[in-house]
């Protein structure tokens, strides 16, 4: 039994079916894919969730028949001083681009950082990302002194950047990768340097037709393997017998028995709402990013934009202070006045009519709620006012699209919370660093997959969580 047909749930269903299990999936929404959402309007097609595919080798053995296209640049970075840096998956090319943009010293700094990032990646891949991680298994890293020194659990990503990179623009570029896990770079572990290494060493990829194609491919693969998927079928609870998961109780009241339950629901929700005896998750950080999204249909072309373009703010710390709030000063979370603006614009005729472009704009945002570290995104007029503000800020950074907009749609953290049951609309689950909730649940026979659990958020990590769980369950 799998609860939730997000990428983690579907990938787990595929692997378990391949291992000979009879797999049933219940999904609360009317469609599959979870946060890998899609939206269509007037001939435009948008990915409303992930917009970049990395580590394509993680998907290779799922039998999905994907045909990803490599991106160059992977991301175009536009800095507050107007300088531009295009990232490349060829380390030599990227170093050359850094030297051309920022000077030889910056290129040499990046090369030193890159050597460290490679060590972090190798240690993480070998010791963390492919297996279940608990405090005990992390402690075992102390027997691999080289791995422990590389991962440096005592150091922050911000600290690592300051150690290796003198140019503030390269530090800003590195800081952004903390947001890939929903974290603040000032507090995120240095181990997250594995993320830029994975993205740049193995490339950034696009799926023609949009990344929603991945959900369709997983659905087709499930159908071919005989997996039964029921949509519009919310699960109200997980049933247990003698301390072991025994099935689920649907919203309809029906109880469905199962030998094993795999939850692709957010770990916090699984523990607190689905189990008959609500459990606690120790050591979790409540400070996790959400995102504010604008979907634009745009007339004409914008050649200065790459497939992915990031516009950095003048004060990155101020953005994180706004998004997470400042408990020490008593300042609540709020929409950032000068946020980092991430624009995705695919040159793919399948996603927009001729003579137009489909833009996906994402900015870091506080989660939805009414407490100190959240914003009430349902407040009347807020979403529209903030969308207008973001387009104004984008114009100030040299890309004024306001007179070319055919339509604009907003997606707030409140919308994501409603559509996917992600607490507060957080994108990557709880930002718990290396110690996210484990893949084994608090009762026997219950396993967790998805971005809220180990090894973390993002399409490849979610897919790895499914492999970890399927390997733990084993063949039928």
From TrEMBL:
Positions in coiled-coil regions: none
One Gene Ontology molecular-function label: oxidoreductase activity
InterPro entries: Amino_oxidase, Carotenoid/retinoid_OxRdtase, FAD/NAD-bd_sf
Biological process per Gene Ontology, one example term: carotenoid biosynthetic process
One Pfam family per UniProt: Amino_oxidase
Pathway connected to this protein: Carotenoid biosynthesis
Keyword tags: Carotenoid biosynthesis, Oxidoreductase
Domain Amine oxidase: 8-271
SUPFAM superfamilies, sorted: FAD/NAD(P)-binding domain
Family label: Belongs to the carotenoid/retinoid oxidoreductase family.
Protein's name according to its UniProt entry: Zeta-phytoene desaturase
Organism annotation: Actinoplanes friuliensis DSM 7358
């Amino acid at each position: 039994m799998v609860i939730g047909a997000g990428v983690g749930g579907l990938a787990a269903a595929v692997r378990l079916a391949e291992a000979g299990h009879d797999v049933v999936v219940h999904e609360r929404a009317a469609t599959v894919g979870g946060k890998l959402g899609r939206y269509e309007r007037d001939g435009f097609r948008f990915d409303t969730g992930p917009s970049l595919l990395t580590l394509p080798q993680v998907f290779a053995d799922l039998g999905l028949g994907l045909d990803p296209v490599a991106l160059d640049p992977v991301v175009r970075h536009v800095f507050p001083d107007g300088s531009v840096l295009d990232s490349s998956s060829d380390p030599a090319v990227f170093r050359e681009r850094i030297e051309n943009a920022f000077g030889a010293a910056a290129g040499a700094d990046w090369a030193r950082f890159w050597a460290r990032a490679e060590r972090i990646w190798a240690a993480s891949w070998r010791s963390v990302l492919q297996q279940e991680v608990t405090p005990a298994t992390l402690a075992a890293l102390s027997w691999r002194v080289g791995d422990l020194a590389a991962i440096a659990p005592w150091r922050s990503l911000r600290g690592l950047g300051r150690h290796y990179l003198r140019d503030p623009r390269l530090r800003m570029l590195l800081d952004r990768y903390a947001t890939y896990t929903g974290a603040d770079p000032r507090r995120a572990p240095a181990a997250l340097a594995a993320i830029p290494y994975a993205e740049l060493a193995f490339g950034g990829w696009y799926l023609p037709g949009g990344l929603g194609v991945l959900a369709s491919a997983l659905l087709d693969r499930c159908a071919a393997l005989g997996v039964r998927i029921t949509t519009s079928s919310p699960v109200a609870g997980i049933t247990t017998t003698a301390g072991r998961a025994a099935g689920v109780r649907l919203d309809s009241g029906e109880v469905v028995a199962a030998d094993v339950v795999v939850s692709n629901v957010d770990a916090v929700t699984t523990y607190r709402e689905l189990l008959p005896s609500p459990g606690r998750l120790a050591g979790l950080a409540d400070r996790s990013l959400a995102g504010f999204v604008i979907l634009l249909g745009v007339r004409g072309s914008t050649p200065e934009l790459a497939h992915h373009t990031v516009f950095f703010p003048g004060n990155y710390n101020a953005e994180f202070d706004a998004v997470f709030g400042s408990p020490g000063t008593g300042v609540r979370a709020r929409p950032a006045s000068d946020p980092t603006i991430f624009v995705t614009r695919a040159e793919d005729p399948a996603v927009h009519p001729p003579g137009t472009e489909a833009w996906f704009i994402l900015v870091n945002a506080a989660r939805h709620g009414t407490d100190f570290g959240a914003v009430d995104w349902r407040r009347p007029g807020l979403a529209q006012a903030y969308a207008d503000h973001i387009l104004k800020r984008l114009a100030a950074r040299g890309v004024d699209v306001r007179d070319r907009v055919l339509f604009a749609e907003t997606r707030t953290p409140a919308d994501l919370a409603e559509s996917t049951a992600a607490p507060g609309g957080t994108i990557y689950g709880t930002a718990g660093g290396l110690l996210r909730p484990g893949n084994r649940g608090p009762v026997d026979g219950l396993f967790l997959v998805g971005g809220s659990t180990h090894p973390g958020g993002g399409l490849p990590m979610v897919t790895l969580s499914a492999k970890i769980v399927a390997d733990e369950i084993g063949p039928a």
